[in-house]
Amino acid sequence: MDLVTNRPILIYDDTCSSCTIFAKYALKFSKGQIHCIGHFSQEGEKLRKRIFPSNYDATEMFWLIKENRAFGGRSGLFQLLVLILRAMPKRKNYAKDNLPKYCANNEDCKNKMHNFKRLYNLLRNGKKLNIKIPNSTKY
After folding, report:
1. What's the rounded Cα separation, in Å, for the pair 71 and 2?
2. How far apart are CA 97 and CA 29, in angstroms?
3. Residue 136: its pLDDT value, please?
4. Closest C-alpha among 54, 60, 43 to residue 9
5. What sections of the chain are H helices per DSSP?
6. Full strand arrangement of the beta sheet holding 126-130
7. For the chain, which terminus, N or C, has the lower number of CB atoms within 10 Å?
8. Beta bridge mates, 72
9. How many other CB atoms sit within 10 Å of the CB of residue 20?
């Protein structure tokens, strides 16, 4: 699959219902300024292999990939907020919801403790990485 985009990419946990809801709202309120990809989708796995070191677990938080930087967790929230605030004056929502309508892992989706742990880790963890990603990424 070819992903040709100048938009930031939001990589989220598509096995977690609250994470999927978070991604849907991020897409909606940014009015299409981001491209959402699930960590465990084919595209997400290939993209993670290209961006992150092989011994690094990138699935512990969501990531916002913007230019040559990857903002994870708490660090990504600020970047996402900036995108949303810039989108507010726009009247039209250009977002195309390409997110799954169901959760990939039904057991984890219904597990409230799993969702609470994900939220806790989101607020506790934050990372920034310098990366090299071309505008046209083939994965």
Report:
1. 23
2. 12
3. 46
4. 43
5. 17-29, 42-51, 74-87, 106-110, 112-124
6. 35-38, 9-12, 63-66, 69-73, 126-130
7. N
8. 63, 127
9. 22
Q: Which of 33, 78, 38, 66 has its CA nearest to residue 133?
A: 66
Q: Tell me the per-residue pLDDT of 46-76, one tens digit each, with 9 for 90 and over.
A: 888 888 878 877 778 889 998 888 898 888 8
Q: How far apart are CA 87 and CA 7, in angstroms?
A: 13
| Dist CA 13 CA 122 (whole Å) | 11
pTM of the model: 0.69
Tokens at 20, concatenated: 């999927």
What is the three-class DSSP state of 38?
Answer: strand
Tokens 């011994």 label which residue?
Answer: 55
